[in-house]
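Continuing from the previous page of notes. For each protein in this section, the sequence appears first, followed by its structure tokens. Read the first protein now.
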Amino acid sequence: MKKLCIVLLVLSTLIPCLLGQGNQETQMDEHHIEKLRVYFFPTREPEEIMTITAPLEHLLKDALKEEGYTVDNVDMSVGTSYEAVGLALASGSTDIGFISAITYSQYSKLGADVILTATRGGLNNDSLNPLDWNQNKPTVGDSEHQVSYYRSIILAGPSKKGRELAAKVNNGEKLSWDDLTSANWAVMSATSSSGYVYPTMWIQKNYHGKTVLDLSSVIQCDSYGSGFARLASKQVDLLCCFSDARRNYEDKWTTVFQSPHSIWDDTDVIAVSDKIMNDTISVSDNSPCMSDAFKAALQNAFIHISQTDEGKKVIAVYSHQGYVKAQDADYDNARKAEALMKSISQ
């Protein structure tokens, strides 16, 4: 009996220690990740993306180490499509994905969780009132002011109808539906946020549920270059584009497109869309290594990387200039856009 009591006493002393050691090992394991998988969406040739982003492997390891996480390997690859990256996040076959706002809205209820929104330099114009843009020409960049979104605008060109509609807007008048449908429009493909989707949302919001499909004359362009060429030559009266597109085509307007006047004299904004959120860095809630603590560590790591010289070169592959912490609600407009496009395609 005395020996039994001694054994029990020893065990009662050892068991808490053993359990404590087990908990410690489990805790250490949570901060040790053998392989972290990163998936990029394909905006250019995969080889080019992989070459530019190659330094991210050691940058991410080093930044996460500062957050208390040890990562053995970072496995990076490029998806065959935007949807492929979204599906990988939904299934848990990747841990981190660089995806667009629309792609995130499609897969946010299936396992994708946004942690960061990309930022770029803002513009001196950001008002929803087109008159403000027309009274504050030209639109110029504001590199000191980083923003996590951009806007779509509808431009009136130098044609007779374009000048007529611009004059009404600059006189403080609201354009009628007859005004819009009497014009010749240039839009981009139906998947273009600034060249189609958000202008369609603006029309629906302001003209009793109507969309681009209800307009009388619409030309779908294969690029913004061809859209601006048509606008300059007066083939179309209105062009849907991103908010700083005129800056990109300012030189070509008077040279390649041979307009006798500057793009700022020839064009006016007649409509401005709601915010279009920038690209995201999202994670998979179905990934075995993902936790709230690790998400926070990833947020801090990517923000730190974006502030280093080497990191800036990596994220420039997507024209990102930095990152801010994101919330799912930031992408409610993207969900509305997705729902609208589904409804009009049926």
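Done with the first. The second protein uses the same format. Note its length before scrolling.
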Amino acid sequence: MKIWKASELPPDWFRRQGTERTTTRQIENNVKAIISRVKSNGDSALLEITEKFDEAKIDSQNLRVTPKEIADAYAKVGEKQVSTIRFMKDKVFAFEKRLFDRGKIEISENGIKIQNVLRSIASVGCYVPGGQAVYPSSLVMTAVPAKVAGVPRIVVCSPPDPTGEVNPLVLVAADICGVDEIYKVGGAQAIAALAYGTETIRPVNKIVGPGNKYVTLAKVFVSKDVAIDMPAGPSEILVLADETASPQFIVLDMISQAEHGTDSVAGLITTSEKLAAEVQDLLGRGLSSLRRAEIVETSLEKNALIVTCPDLDRAVELANIFAPEHLEIMTRDPDKIAGRITSAGLILLGPYSPVALSDYCSGTNHVLPTGGFGHAFSGLSVFDFARRVSVVEGSKEGLRSVEDQVNTMAEAENLPNHYKAVEGRLEK
């Protein structure tokens, strides 16, 4: 793995050099074809595509997970796993509930009362990835905020294994979080079903959740017809460090993100050439003994990056250009550096705040913008499942207090009857 000097980088290199930032036209065409098939043929397309990509033979009668399957799932997982999912759900619920309550405000002034009220979306589809790993945590992160917001219909889609079953941990998490419907379907075909509906799956008002590039592309393509949360694709970590940072901690965190998949991104920006060399050395040996070693090695070989900078100013500048999903700050004064970060999905401060903490047990949400979308998007929260509505109640004295200002603006915009609507109410 090469160490780059910031001064040697082309101007746009750090935006996404070495990653699969763009997709091929063939992948785009494949995703569009899948969406079109599901729109046209409904369940039959879902079943054919599921058999092709997931090697699972399912018929429309067992596309939806049954209560018995959920009950059976508890027998297949450990009590400690169940209690951990409950613990995680409670942590996320508490944090999201505080956010939700803070969003309700009321102000009264000069006879005019305004409120900001929150109304839940009618239905939400939560995508939970499968494939190379299992993600009950992603189910918690998507379903719990929806529950806090009061969404009456929460639907989950997750790919089945070759036996036609959804992972039991995902089913247990869905039960604990109060999900209403679970379907055995993944990939772009699941996104199409949630967006447009089939004979078995009714469409939803919004689709949320992370996924691979096919899922992410599908969300983008259907977003003209149904709301989505954000383009949340392959996982990313960027560590911003000075000479005080532990190379071992950095390596552990880079590996932890690389094991998500071969398209994951792990990077280090540092002001210390010594630290960069130590991280490079540690990443260059001993990986073969890791669990998921092949995935880790491929991911690091394709997408890892180490960049040295002359000072923290340049390091912060590059971090903001990159806009990583997760930004770990391991410097002498991390809080001060964090105040200068303008683009990141989540910021983790100090040596004892690994991504694993926020992924599972901090109470924050781990569904975050990737691929540079941190410049404009925030991480998933309860506000993604609610609509803000302003409620205004005026009085005669309130109208009179703003009569002159309404008249001025109505004349300025050549809309005189706007003022007449006020004036008429104030006549004796």
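What the second structure shows: The chain has three domains: 25-228, 234-365, 395-426. Residues 17-22 have pLDDT under 50 and may be disordered. We return to this in next week's lecture.
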